[in-house]
Amino acid sequence: xxxxxxxxxxxxxxxxxxxxxxxxxxxxxxxxxxxxxxxxxxxxxxxxxxxxxxxxxxxxxxxxxxxxxxxxxxxxxxxxxxxxxxxxxxxxxxxxxxxxxxxxxxxxxxxxxxxxxxxxxxxxxxxxxxxxxxxxxxxxxxxxxxxxxxxxxxxxxxxxxxxxxxxxxxxxxxxxxxxxxxxxxxxxxxxxxxxxxxxxxxxxxxxxxxxxxxxxxxxxxxxxxxxxxxxxxxxxxxxxxxxxxxxxxxxxxxxxxxxxxxxxxxxxxxxxxxxxxxxxxxxxxxxxxxxxxxxxxxxxxxxxxxxxxxxxxxxxxxxxxxxxxxxxxxxxxxxxxxxxxxxxxxxxxxxxxxxxxxxxxxxxxxxxxxxxxxxxxxxxxxxxxxxxxxxxxxxxxxxxxxxxxxxxxxxxxxxxxxxxxxxxxxxxxxxxxxxxxxxxxxxxxxxxxxxxxxxxxxxxxxxxxxxxxxxxxxxxxxxxxxxxxxxxxxxxxxxxxxxxxxxxxxxxxxxxxxxxxxxxxxxxxxxxxxxxxxxxxxxxxxxxxxxxxxxxxxxxxxxxxxxxxxxxxxxxxxxxxxxxxxxxxxxxxxxxxxxxxxxxxxxxxxxxxxxxxxxxxx
Length: 618
Prior knowledge:
Layout: H1 2-34, H2 40-57, H3 63-76, H4 81-88, H5 90-102, H6 106-121, E1 135-137, E2 143-145, H7 147-154, H8 159-181, H9 189-193, H10 211-223, H11 225-251, H12 261-279, H13 295-299, H14 303-322, H15 330-355, H16 363-373, H17 382-390, H18 392-396, H19 398-403, H20 408-411, H21 429-456, H22 460-467, H23 470-477, H24 484-488, E3 490-491, E4 497-499, H25 504-511, H26 517-552, H27 556-572, H28 580-595, E5 597-598, E6 601-602, H29 605-616
Antiparallel strand pairs: 1-2, 3-4, 5-6
Helix pairs in contact: 1-2, 3-10, 3-21, 4-11, 5-6, 5-11, 5-15, 6-11, 8-12, 11-12, 14-15, 21-22, 22-23, 26-27
């Protein structure tokens, strides 16, 4: 088993390394010839391709970063059913608008996706999906229809429908063969990102390494099973739907059209391109180069999806506004621009349905700019303002209201790369850098640390929940009669209720990883109110401190400025007004502080007395 596996892998590696080397040699020769006439974009593209070729030939081991990413995955979305469910939203949320725009027909795109999802879904077998299951492959690599599987699929169909289905599967064999040859059916980006040698529940060679590495691989593989199936389902559904739509375009919808081999391969090329545009690649080599190795691999974990989505949306957005220079034919350029406009509009409408205004592509960038440039910390943030103006339904969408769970925060098409740290609004520069560079691995370590603190403080149940992977903890919390949320509802660490009227449906959602809509709404409103209150109190303390210092230093100019600031503050925040008695209390407090100041440090009277005794003796 070991030698045969290694030999086969080594043969394939040698074959493909030769292909990469040949392409690299051709690139180098062409670059030498054309170097003088190339612009900066072409030179940049050449350098990018050369770096990627080097990575493909000699990928780094990166064992430390692999381990951190695996641990982070297990603790964040591993074992978490909600992550797989959210992943499935990719098809209606993003792929459908793309295909509806590309083929200028929403009805045809919807029908193609519905049929493709049925084909891929019915291929489910042994905890996996694979459209290659509809075919038998002989020793020469030729594909023929698996009659048993075909019979299952066509049961109940008329003879005419069976004939049509057979022809469609025969046409699809070209796509399936090429997809299998290129690893598009058996690989997923997640598996490659987590460096898993084989999938959970499948026979095959384990990765070499010590017991710790092999155990971590097994746990990671099992925890990723649902997410893996969802990713492959999305990829194969997109592939089949795009292929059939492209064949329909080539045949102009004619029944019984006889396709040439060249046309079938052309449709397969188009299907692979669209799948890459809407789902990303199946391999780490085709992801963003920054995320391929080293600490950046940890920092950008889960960000590759965002990069892919933004790149596709930005390309369509630019084309919708400026048009394209791909073709000299004005009609073709007009068609491409129309495609882009339909795609951009489609993405905004689908995100509006699934996640409301809160989830629309440009919403996050706009509100972040508004918070930074137009609003200060003493007033509601942009999210709260929009929510108050629109109310909950348009703010977070129809799906939230139907399910009574916070789906919008998980499927939104904004904030996919850069998010504000909503749990630490006043983060220091060091905390902000750590938040972005540490990635999910740092968040996982902090979560585990909080669990240890809870245990030391005697909060055993909360401590165990924090130390368990989120998917398992979510399930345990909601177990009827036993879980903490099922017993108490959502409470603070002191036991004060946040949301205690939890329904059976909300508990079921919690089990699968979806927090109740009302709970998240209250948390978000509370955090905004707390941040605003904190900013107001900080401003109040700053004014009072400024006034005390100006009086103590007898600086009339600074005192006038402090009083002017006080009047502005009282006018803006009458509930927190600085009254004469407030000033009096503040002055006395500052005087007491000055009285206990020793060499620039505030000490209690007891500490000052002890210090005097130490110096002078009794």
